[in-house]
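FORM 12-B: Structure-to-Sequence Request
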């Protein structure tokens, strides 16, 4: 019986401690993937429907004043959306959700390539996010930019910490 327990104990002792920050970022990325899959499905669902009519029904369900400025503005814009735009939105939503799944699973499994991949994609997106925030400042865009900067900062810290550990190991071995 002792021989069975020893390998299990050894395995438990050598199991890697999961980085809770990476786990949180991974779950965030996987949550984004689910959101964009739902967005893509919703866009496809609307392809052969009158988007303005659907928006009007949604406004009625939430008991919004359909004659108010904001709701009227949104209803007018909904009437301009066409099927090919919805199909394109669905395609890009599904593609982006795939990227988020790759990031999320890679970070969940604490893969170094996923850390670099996520840092690269975040850095590439920052100019666009800043442009959008300057063009039309609002709380949502500001929070999105802040969240992405926090993720970027954390991943850069993780990468630097990993490099230091590797340098220490190589100096001890060499």
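FORM 12-B RESPONSE
SEQUENCE OUT:
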């Amino acid at each position: 019986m002792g021989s069975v327990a020893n390998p299990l104990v050894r395995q438990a002792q050598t199991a890697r401690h999961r980085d809770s920050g990476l786990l949180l970022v991974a779950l965030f990325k996987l949550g984004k993937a689910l959101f964009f899959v739902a967005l893509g499905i919703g866009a496809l669902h609307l392809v052969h429907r009158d988007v303005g009519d659907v928006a009007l029904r949604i406004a009625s369900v939430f008991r919004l004043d359909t004659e108010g400025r904001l709701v009227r503005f949104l209803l007018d814009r909904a009437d301009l959306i066409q099927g090919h735009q919805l199909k394109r939105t669905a395609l890009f939503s599904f593609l982006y959700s795939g990227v988020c799944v790759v990031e999320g699973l890679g970070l969940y499994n604490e893969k170094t390539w996923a850390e670099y991949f996520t840092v690269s994609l975040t850095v590439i997106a920052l100019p666009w996010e800043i442009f959008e925030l300057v063009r039309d400042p609002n709380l949502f865009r500001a929070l999105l930019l802040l969240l992405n900067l926090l993720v970027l900062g954390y991943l850069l810290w993780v990468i630097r910490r990993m490099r230091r550990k590797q340098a220490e190991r190589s100096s001890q071995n060499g």
